[in-house]
Design goal:
CATH architecture of the largest domain: 3-Layer(aba) Sandwich
Shape: globular
Distance between the termini: 38 Å
Number of helices: 13
Number of strands: 13
Strand content: 15-25%
Structural class: alpha/beta
Helix content: 40-55%
């Protein structure tokens, strides 16, 4: 995914406030309001601002990850995007159309045809087998039987459940149940896909396998995805960009590498301090200008993580060529990797210390 892709989903000045009544706070345009001051007023009046002036874009084919501690507002935001939770104020634009202006009838139609949702609770129907669980939303859409069969069989193959079509949920492992949930949401062929900690209830090994499956599916389908997780290493594996939230507010948006190497404050720095830099840095960032490339050198994509290059560097003394398509950018050497890791670790420590001092 590149930022040149068009925007699929936009969130603008989104507020969700839990209070006895809407009060006068949002009776006029609040898009230019001081969010901190307004949030403080709400809390002083006994209201709970669960989402505070949140804004972001999700591009076509992008995996946009939302992270934060428990109670930070990440699940509230995702539910506001689909209006499972009704926003108090703001805009949610899908292909430029504000979902907050849609009638309930229109919204149901949009959910059934354009949105896929997967939550931590698999939500499978216990009296239906795998095939019927997956086909269920298609039957609600009124899809003809022949097409329903074709689409159900296609997603069963996509998530690797061939041979388990007749099994019931209580006959499946946790990972298999999650695959059914994913297949069911994909069967409607959604344009946007919301996933709220879908793998958090799984054992570590199964979770890793499901992440692999998720990335494989995304490589094929190129969905626009909003993915919630509390695990930074999971976010690091799957995110194109990510947003970190705190107390209902967006703290920072960027690529995983941007958040790790240039945290906005100590909160973000604390999230990222234990992440190995070798997983973040890519080949293009560790080129050695002192080494000339030769035709005999082994070639790798410039976006390959440094972590994946280390075993090859041990046996390729002259270095590895980092390529963007057919174009060679330069040579990666063991010395250039060591220098980059040392520099980035020092930079990150200095940035974190400076941010902590500024916050005090």
């Amino acid at each position: 995914m590149t930022q040149s892709e068009p925007v699929k989903l936009s969130c603008r000045h989104l507020w969700k406030v839990y209070a006895e009544e809407r009060a006068p706070y949002f009776k006029q345009d609040a898009s230019g309001a001081d969010a901190d001051a307004l949030s403080a007023r709400l809390r002083a009046d006994g209201a709970i601002p669960a989402a505070v002036d949140v804004a972001f874009d999700v591009h076509v084919g992008e995996i946009f990850v939302i992270m934060g501690l428990s109670g930070s507002g990440k699940s509230t935001v995702v539910r506001c995007l689909s209006r499972l939770v009704e926003p108090t104020y703001g805009e949610v634009l899908l292909d430029g159309e504000d979902l907050l202006t849609k009638s309930q009838k229109d919204l149901i139609d949009i959910r059934r045809h354009k949105m896929g949702m997967v939550f931590q609770n698999f939500g499978l129907l216990p009296h239906l087998n795998v095939y019927d669980n997956i086909a269920f939303p298609l039957s609600l859409q009124g899809v003809a039987k022949a097409e329903r069969k074709t689409r159900t069989e296609r997603v069963i193959d996509l998530v690797g459940l061939e041979g388990r079509e007749s099994a019931f949920p209580n006959q499946l492992s946790g990972g298999q149940q999650q695959r059914v949930g994913i297949a069911r949401s994909l069967a409607i062929e959604p344009e946007v896909w919301f996933l709220d900690e879908p793998f958090s209830a799984l054992d570590p090994l199964i979770r890793r396998q499901m992440q692999d499956e998720f990335l494989r599916i995304q490589a094929t389908l190129r969905k626009s995805i909003v993915f919630i997780t509390h695990d930074f290493l999971e976010a690091l594996r799957i995110a194109d960009r990510m947003m970190i939230m705190r107390d209902g507010r967006c703290v920072q948006i960027g690529t995983p590498a941007e958040l790790i190497t240039n945290p906005a404050d100590s909160y973000v720095a604390d999230f990222t301090e234990d992440v190995p830099m070798a997983r973040v840095l890519r080949a293009r960032a560790v080129l050695d200008p002192s080494v000339a490339l030769t035709e005999s050198m082994e070639r790798h994509d410039c976006e390959t993580p440094v972590e994946d290059l280390l075993p090859r560097l041990a046996s390729c003394k002259d270095g590895l060529v980092a390529c963007e398509g057919d174009h060679a950018l330069g040579v990666v050497t063991a010395n250039s990797v060591i220098a980059a890791l040392a520099h980035q670790d020092k930079f990150r420590t200095q940035e974190a210390d400076a941010n902590r001092e500024a916050a005090q």
